[in-house]
Q: What sequence folds into this?
């Protein structure tokens, strides 16, 4: 899960947005020479079920998302102006080329190595700040918002966005493996709706307690 946090006081406050990561759909497709399951169709089902965005992580070895998938999904997302397109990856590998060509709404910088099976740690802030800054500026220059994959460390959070002692709200969550695992049993559309129900319950006011 990749949570993007908010102070709760900015213009983007509100219900937490669910962005569906379709990497595992692409991984299953790549196990055969057929275009099944179809990545665009899976993204469409998720969006039709109420997802607020689609996330992909095109790794250099193309183990799941392939380079050719990126512009195809970007074209699909143009038909869903209310949803956001997020591309994850290591900006020192292949991410910035996609950011500059496709210009998604958001890019998420992840410090993963080529051989990692999944993203399991965040940037070392403030140690990585100087080398990340030019890449953040490059993304901003083409109109792309940047999210940083960081560990839940208070010092790192302050560096990333001048956080205080707590984070009062979660703006967005990007969920992939768990979502697709649930989709095997529930179907993708119903899995998305189930996650949205959980988000809705998390935002519901606490019931009044009678003395």
A:
């Amino acid at each position: 899960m990749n949570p993007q946090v908010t102070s709760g006081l900015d213009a983007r406050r509100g219900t937490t947005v669910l962005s569906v990561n379709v990497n595992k759909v692409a991984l299953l497709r790549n196990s055969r020479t057929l275009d099944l399951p179809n990545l665009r169709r899976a993204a469409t089902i998720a969006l039709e079920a109420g997802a607020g965005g689609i996330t992909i992580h095109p790794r250099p070895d193309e183990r799941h998302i392939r380079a050719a998938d990126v512009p195809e999904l970007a074209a699909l997302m143009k038909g869903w102006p209310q949803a956001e397109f997020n591309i994850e990856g290591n900006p020192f590998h292949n991410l910035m080329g996609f950011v500059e060509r496709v210009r998604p709404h958001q890019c998420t910088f992840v410090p993963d190595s080529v051989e990692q099976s999944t993203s399991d740690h965040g940037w070392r802030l403030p140690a990585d700040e100087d080398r990340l800054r030019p890449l953040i500026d490059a993304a901003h220059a083409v109109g792309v918002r940047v999210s940083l994959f960081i560990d839940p460390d208070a010092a790192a959070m302050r560096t990333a966005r001048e956080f205080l002692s707590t984070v009062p709200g979660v703006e967005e969550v990007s969920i992939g493996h768990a979502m697709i695992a649930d989709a095997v049993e529930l179907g993708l559309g119903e899995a998305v709706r189930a996650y949205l129900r959980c988000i809705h319950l998390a935002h519901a006011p606490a019931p009044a307690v009678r003395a």
In short: The chain has one domain: 6-203. The beta strands are 2-6, 17-21, 53-56, 84-89, 106-109, 145-148, 169-175. The two ends are 39 Å apart (CA to CA). The CA atoms of residues 90 and 113 lie 8 Å apart.
